[in-house]
Amino acid sequence: MQATADVTKKEISWSSWKGQAIDLLYWRNVKQSGAVFSSVLLLLFSLTQFSVVSVGAYLALAALSATISFRIYKSVLQAVQKTDEGHPFKAYLEMEIALSQEQISKYADKILLYSNTCMRELRRLFLVQDLVDSLKFAVLMWLLTYVGALFNGLTLLILAVVSMFTMPVVYEKHQAQIDQYVGLIRTQVNSVVGKIQAKIPGAKRKEE
């Protein structure tokens, strides 16, 4: 009974976290999404100009300046008003932030599962278990050589963040048109792949 209750709590917690992420990316709360989006972009743009160590140090100094100033302000205010409200960050200091053994095991199991899946997929592609999939992978790697020549990893990360906060909203507003174009592109790609499979010996997938 206890195990069932724990599983239910985990499912509710995951659903709540997922719902918050979706609301953030779809700009349900404009102020919250704007704050997160601008903060992440500011951090990434800072990394394009300064080293990771410098950015981390500046962020730590900014946070310490804010907390120390607030701590001194509250202490002076309590002294003037002769009140004893205690430490202004008491609630946060008493908050439990440690990961439980169960949570660590859960995340470790997920990482292990994804790692094993990735290794099996790479083995399948590099050892040409399916010729068409390996050719697709080769074309993708070839295209990435051009992408790498134009952009560095940090620039790609910035573009990914911008896409995460814009593409869902654009798709939501123009879903019908986008689905129509995606369907046409998919049809053309499947047609080309079918022709390649027909012409290359052994490229046709085996029927399961």
From TrEMBL:
InterPro entries associated with the record: Reticulon, RTN1-4
Gene3D superfamilies according to UniProt: 1.20.5.2480
Spans through the membrane: 35-64, 150-171
Superkingdom field: Eukaryota
Membrane-topology annotation of the record: Multi-pass membrane protein
Keywords in alphabetical order: Endoplasmic reticulum, Membrane, Transmembrane, Transmembrane helix
Compartments it resides in: Endoplasmic reticulum membrane
Gene Ontology biological-process entries: brain development; endoplasmic reticulum tubular network formation; neuron differentiation
Cellular component GO terms, alphabetical: endoplasmic reticulum membrane; neuron projection; postsynaptic density
Residue ranges constituting the Reticulon domain according to the UniProt record: 21-208
Principal location: endoplasmic reticulum
PANTHER family per record: RETICULON (PTHR45799:SF6), RETICULON-LIKE PROTEIN (PTHR45799)
Name of this protein: Reticulon
